[in-house]
Amino acid sequence: MAVQKLKPEDPETEGLVPTTREDALELMNEIIEVWQPSHQSWLLNNSAKVAGIFATLPAIYLSLRMRRMFGLDKVSKMTDGFMYLPGLASAGAPAYAAHSLYVRDDIVLQESDCSVCVDVRSAAIQVSSSLILPSILTYGSAIMHASRNNLRLVPKSLKGFVMLSKGVYSKLFVPLCALTIMELLVSEGLVRKQYTDRVVLMGELERRYTLEQQRLQINENQF
Fold first, then answer.
1. Which of 107, 148, 196, 209 is the most buried (most CB within 10 A)?
2. Between 42-69 and 158-171, two packed helices, what is the crossing angle to 10 degrees?
């Protein structure tokens, strides 16, 4: 018993039941959700959550680091922390949704013949959602926050804004490189483990199905 993508003219389609992508994904999700032992399917059930959590970590770091860089930790109120929610939300939510739709579901249905393509896609999603968007939004939030507190470092011109931006991101260059490597490793690990878990799960499912058919055949022969 397996779900696989085949062309109509493929000889392997003989005896198989055609279905839509949505129905195939629903069937696979039902199998994975109730699979026992649960550790074999844990990552297939939770990979999007893991991607979202790891994507949020750089946003948290950037928010705290920029607060210190702008001196906001000394003058801001507790309620001003809500200004950083856009940066945090821009990391976790997109990473969760995009990983689920374009990485996890692809692996479950084996839609892409090239696993490297899935690796690249996953890496692009993870890095863009965890670093690119949060770094822009947390910087913008810090500027707005500093302006509200009338801090002198807030630029008054475009030239001043460019110079300030260069100074801020030059200080963040090494941490951003380290965070990028971390996110790439997370992405690679998630993709490889999900491919491995799917192979194990499908192999075990086929084995159980075969054993059940043999048991039914023995029962029929006995009667």
1. 107
2. 120
For residue range 151-164, list pLDDT tens digits in order.
Answer: 677 778 888 888 88
Phi, psi (deg, nearest 5) at residue 19: -150, 165
DSSP structure string for 119-151: HHHHHHHHHIIIIIHHHHHHHHHHHHHHHHTT-
Angle at 80 between CA 77 and CA 84, to 5 degrees: 140
Rounded CA-CA distance 216/211 in Å is 9
Band of residue 192 on the pLDDT scale cut at 50, 70, 90: very high
Instruction: Go through 91-122 and write b for each residue having 16 or more CB atoms within 10 A of its CB, e for each that does not.
Output: bbebbbebbeebbbbbbbbbebeeeeebbebb
CA distance 90 to 95: 8
Model confidence pLDDT, tens digit, residues 27-59: 999 999 999 999 999 999 999 999 999 999 998
The domain locations on the chain are 35-210
For the record, the structure tokens of 168 come out as 């801020």
Please report the sign of the dihedral spanned by the C-alpha atoms of residue 124, residue 130, residue 132, residue 133: positive
What predicted TM-score, i.e. pTM, was given to this entire model? 0.83
